[in-house]
Design brief:
The protein contains four helices and six strands. It is α+β, with helices and mostly antiparallel strands. The protein has a single domain (about 20-100), classed as NE0471-like N-terminal domain (NE0471 N-terminal domain-like, 2-Layer Sandwich). The radius of gyration is 14 Å and the shape is globular. The N and C termini lie far apart (about 35 Å).
């Protein structure tokens, strides 16, 4: 995992708005992600780390190996796990859609 200022890496294609261009593990299970359009957020994907592909990420050391796959524009891990830009941007897209449809109801 590389650490540094957001967007510091060279050779990043900033054309796709939903593309993740930078990710940093802030602490176990918390990521800061930067998108091509400049939007950034911190999130804890811990609650979804279940199943064969995500279970290994419950180990803090393994979680710390998060990196951006610049060809795919998403956060990936060495075991093949990945998080789609839509999830990283909105958290749970289904829950986010429900909240947008019914403001104030969670």
């Amino acid at each position: 995992m590389r650490y540094g200022a957001l967007g510091e890496e060279e050779g990043i294609d900033l054309m796709e708005e939903e593309t993740v261009v930078y990710a940093r593990v802030l602490r176990p299970y918390v990521l800061r992600v930067l998108f091509a359009d400049g939007f950034q957020r911190e999130l804890d994907p811990g609650p979804i780390l279940h199943g064969a592909i995500f279970e290994p990420l419950r180990d803090a050391q393994m979680f710390g190996h998060a990196r951006v796959d610049h060809e795919l524009g998403m956060v990936v891990w060495p075991n093949g796990a990945d998080l789609a830009p839509e999830f990283l941007r909105e958290g749970d897209p289904v829950k986010a859609a429900r909240e947008r449809a019914r403001p104030g109801v969670k």
